């Protein structure tokens, strides 16, 4: 049995001023806000009604204007998250237009949504890639904030990681947002995100968060590095305790203790994630390591695919210059 999608009272005339009450849109220009207002729809759902159910097609990206939405697990129907004013709904529509809902969304109170239908989003993707990338970025920020409210943080992190796999998101943006999410969940002070270039045999630092030295070399040689460097020959997650680190060589990207995870694709290393200085507990826990391992597996393939696309683009540009 297929699920039900949003089909309630609709108002197709949208005042662009409604976006002023949604923090996620504060970084967009007035021009882009006006473009979004032209394609947006407002829908109102009565309290206690389902907005969509498992099996329904994701046909629009939505944001909560007013009210409270509860997300229910597909099988158990237990609450796994709550969405309130400003939170995004059905964000996976930016990933796969043919994707279907896997959970139930229910209006706990009367809910007003602003919706962007998928056919309009496809047009924006083709004609205004910068606006489309901005939508992806604000969704990432929204999901980061949602971590404070979600009951199932792992599910939320999975969705964010999937969003980060989009071509429109650069390595630095991907790394920065990913680090913010992980540091919020695992509760660590600093982190770095690197990609590995097999041709130069160096890790390239794409993003860092926390009180790290900004004037350091933006690459790390595995031959001389005692921590990230070991991932080449032993590509597995490593926990470094405060006691262990105090007796070993200090490096600029680690403070006190660390979790070091390789990013892998088809058993080949594509980069590394390093978290340092655990905040809520004296040391990183086994559960922290398991969570980072899951995230690193999801990100490793995305890094490899981005690298492949970059190489294709570079080769294409080289051929154009050579032919001309």
Overall 3D geometry?
globular
* Beta-strand share of residues: 25-35%
Specify Rg, calculated over alpha carbons: 22 Å
Largest β-sheet summary: 6 strands, antiparallel
User: How many alpha or pi helices?
Assistant: 7
| Sequence of secondary-structure elements | EHEEEEEEEEHHHHEEEEHEEH
Write down the overall mean pLDDT.
82
- Largest sheet: spatial strand order: 12-11-10-15-14-13
Q: Helicity, in percent? A: 25-40%
Write the topology of this structure:
Elements (H helix, E strand, L loop, with lengths): L8 E3 L18 H10 L1 E5 L4 E3 L7 E7 L2 E4 L6 E5 L4 E2 L14 E4 L3 E7 H10 L1 H18 L6 H11 L7 H16 L1 E10 L4 E8 L9 E2 L17 E3 L1 H5 L11 E8 L2 E11 L7 H38 L1
Antiparallel strand pairs: 1-2, 2-9, 3-8, 4-7, 4-9, 5-6, 5-8, 10-11, 10-15, 11-12, 13-14, 14-15
Helix pairs in contact: 2-3, 3-4, 3-5, 4-5, 4-7
């Amino acid at each position: 049995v297929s699920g039900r999608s949003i089909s309630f009272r609709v108002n197709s005339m949208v005042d662009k001023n409604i976006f002023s009450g949604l923090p996620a849109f504060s970084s967009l220009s007035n021009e882009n806000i006006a473009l979004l207002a032209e394609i947006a729809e407002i829908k109102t759902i009565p309290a206690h009604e389902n907005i969509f159910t498992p099996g329904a097609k994701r046909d629009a990206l939505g944001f909560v204007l007013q009210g409270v939405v509860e997300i229910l697990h597909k099988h158990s129907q237990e609450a796994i998250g709550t969405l309130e004013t400003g939170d995004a709904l059905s964000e996976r529509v930016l990933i796969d237009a043919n994707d279907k809902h896997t959970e139930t969304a229910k209006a706990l109170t009367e809910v007003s949504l602003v919706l962007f239908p998928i056919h309009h989003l496809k047009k924006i993707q083709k004609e205004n890639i910068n606006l489309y990338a901005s939508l992806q970025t604000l969704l990432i920020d929204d999901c980061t904030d949602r971590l404070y409210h979600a009951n199932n943080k792992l599910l939320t992190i999975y969705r964010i990681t999937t969003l980060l796999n989009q071509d429109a998101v650069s390595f630095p943006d991907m790394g920065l947002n990913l680090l913010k999410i992980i540091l919020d969940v695992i509760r660590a002070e600093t982190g770095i995100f690197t990609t590995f270039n097999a041709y130069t045999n160096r890790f390239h630092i794409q993003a860092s968060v926390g009180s790290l030295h900004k004037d350091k070399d933006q690459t790390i040689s595995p031959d001389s590095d005692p921590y990230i460097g070991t991932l080449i020959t032993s590509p597995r997650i490593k926990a470094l305790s405060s006691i262990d680190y105090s007796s070993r060589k200090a490096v600029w990207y680690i403070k006190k203790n660390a979790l070091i995870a390789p990013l892998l694709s088809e058993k080949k290393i594509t980069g590394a994630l390093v978290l340092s200085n655990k905040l809520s507990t004296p040391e990183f826990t086994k559960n922290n390591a398991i969570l980072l391992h899951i995230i690193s597996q999801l990100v490793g393939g995305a890094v490899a695919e981005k690298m492949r696309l970059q190489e294709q683009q570079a080769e294409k540009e080289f051929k154009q210059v050579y032919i001309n």
